[in-house]
Each structure stands twice: as C-alpha cells, then as structure tokens.
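== Protein entry: sequence and backbone fold ==
=== Local backbone shapes as whole numbers ===
==== Amino acids and backbone structure tokens ====
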Amino acid sequence: MLSACSGGPYPLCDVKTLFPDPPRPLDATYQVDGRTLHYVEMPGSEQTRILFIHGSPGSWEAWAAYLRDPALQRMGTLIAPDRAGYGRSVGAADPNMAAQGRLLAPLLGKGEASTIVVGHSLGGPIAAQLALDYPGQVRAAVLIAPSMAPEYEHPRWYNLLGDTWIARWLAPDELLKSNAEMLPLREELQALMPRWSSLRVPTVVIQGEHDRLVDPRTADFAERVLPARWARIERLADAGHFVLWKQPQIVVDAIQAVNQRALLGTQHLP
C-alpha cells in the first residue's frame, strides 16, 4: 500500500447493496469549486447533523455501520461523503487541509452549531479544520486515531516508493491519490499548529495504544495542544488504528457524549 491510513471493510458498491432493507440512505451529489462530490445521507432531524469523514484512502462505506446505528439515527441526519478524489467524488485529491474543509462545508447544517464532525485517520484533522473554520456551524468533534501530530507524521517507505515513475505507472489510482495527500501531510499539519488552542467545541480524541499507522503518542500531542476545558483524550489499551470498525460502540458513545455536553452548554467532558 502507498498509504495505509484508512479504507472501509467494504468494496466500492452502491447503497442498495449495503442497505438491502429500509431505512436506506439517500445517494446524492453536490457542486463546490467546480467539482462534483458524492455523499450519502440517512435522513433525520435537521436540528442535528453528524458528518463522518473517512481517511486516506477510503470512501463513505467506511461509515456504513454508523449510518445503520439506531441510536445515531435517533440523534438526527447522518451524512458520509466521499472525499475529493475518492469513491464517486470525481477529480484529483486535494492535500490542502483548508481546501478539504471548504469542499465539505456545504454538508454542514444550516442551523447554528448543528453539526457534529467525526473523522478517522486523515479525516481527523479535516474534521478539526471544519470546527476551526466554521465554528458557527460545528457543535462538537470526535477525532478517531487522527493524523494530527506533525512530529509523528512523516512519509513512510511505501509513500516514497509510490512517488517513483514505476509506481505511478503500476499502482491503482486510489493509492496514488492517497500518496499525493500523505507526502505533504507534515507541512499541512505544521500550518495547523497555531490554531489548535483555538478549538472551542466539545471534542473527544480516541487513540489506540496499538496503532501502527498513527503513532500512539498522538494522544499526548492532543493533550498538549487542545484546550483542556474543551477536549477529552481517550487512550485505548486494547485498540489499534481501526477502532471505528472493531470497537464501534466506543465511537458511538463519544458522539453522544460530545453532543450532550454541547447541548447542555458545558465544556468539560466526564
């Protein structure tokens, strides 16, 4: 693999295949910056939106089980996009964090502080970017094994190999797009460094101690840079990078916790 950050446990397939029985999410596209981006939406109350952001590579299917979750369905509208360049979102991937946020911003709820952003791996800092750039629309954030610490994010051997002409000739397009995101990631994260202390929404960071793709010390980084009154760091002794599939209830609990704290107007999370 040229990037081993993320990717769902499902092959790329349509909504009816993954959701043979109702309720079934809607399949839709939208236009932004001259691009056509794809997403699926499980309709619910518009007072709350939960926006799920996949890693690199990946697609909306990474979150299919969450769109099925009855507890989350009761909370509101559930949305899972294909990020730029992945799945059915056409065109090239964009490694710029601010641009990634701008491309996803049309999916945020129109109401004040109506959206909970949830990101896995590279989707983590993109979720945080949305919270920083659109504070009036984002209610809370859950960052799962987030690639957010520049000192621990550096190109791996397969990224460097993927930047050679033979890899560009032989490798699948999705992995080449992922590689284009991963090579400049450290610089993108450095640009975010001055902004972490400005995060002002209830936030949970979930980090597995056995993560081989995102350094477990990322939890220490998050504890250091995020405002303590807004953020809670969960270190999972028995988890790796793909906690979102192997221990989904932990993620669901975190989503419910940040939502409750945001609605109550309290900053501290238990």
In short: The CA atoms of residues 118 and 208 lie 16 Å apart. The beta strands are 26-32, 35-42, 49-53, 77-81, 115-120, 138-144, 203-208, 231-236. The domain at 24-263 is CATH 3.40.50.1820 (Rossmann fold). Confidence is low (pLDDT under 50) at residues 1-10.
